[in-house]
Amino acid sequence: MANYTAADVKKLRELTGAGMMDCKKALDEAEGNVDKAVEILRVKGQKGVAKREGRSAENGAVVSLIADDHTSGVLLELKCETDFVAKGEKFVSAAEALAAHVAATSPADLEALLSSEIEPGKTVQAYVDEANATLGEKIVLDRFAQFTGGYVSAYMHRTSPDLPPQVGVLVELDKENAEVAKDVAQHIAAFAPKYLSREDVPAETVENERRVAEATSREEGKPEAALPKIVEGRVNGFFKEVVVLEQAFAKDNKKTVQKVLDEAGVTLKRFARIRVGA
Q1: Are strands 167-173 and 122-123 parallel, antiparallel or unpaired?
Q2: pLDDT, position 261
């Protein structure tokens, strides 16, 4: 039997993020040599990448990186299969490194991000594949947001104290206001709006809501003459559900988010909300 200690197993787990039994097998094969065991795990891991492609990655973490002067910020989701891996230092460090890379390079889209070099000779896609191999789970990077230009802030929400943030919100105001930025970001985290303003809602989505509202009203036997007003009311109700500026503010439901922004003299230019796996 190979000569290694529990400390060697612990060190190998910390270096690779691999499971205890996989680490023991690798140390056995490497005759107790930790460096060689790392290489063995990487090779075995790469062989298993293709097998993991069809598996589901619904756990993970959302990380953010905000510039010291709040003129830019990044929000990024990295997904994995289990919460065990999600809360591991190796996984979270990988997510933070990817966010830092986005902040430094400002990729135009996901395709540009994955093909960019995060290290000399290593693309982001290769970096993710390497994490896939060493952590032994399907690792997926398919969403990020980056804002630059206004006052950018983020709010990160933990759904469980032993997990990294599962919900992240990035907001951009036209001018500095830390308190309003935080309040609005928290509101967005809780109420999950889909659009900034009603002008951002696709016309086909609005028309579909209008058709459903009319059909529902007819099914309920509403008077024909009253239908236009009823339908319009229901469409406006839809806007109040999905448009952040028209939602009732979380901290004071007698005000809309737009009203809160107006009172503070700031404009919400854009936002991004990411919930792991959603």
Answers
A1: unpaired
A2: 98
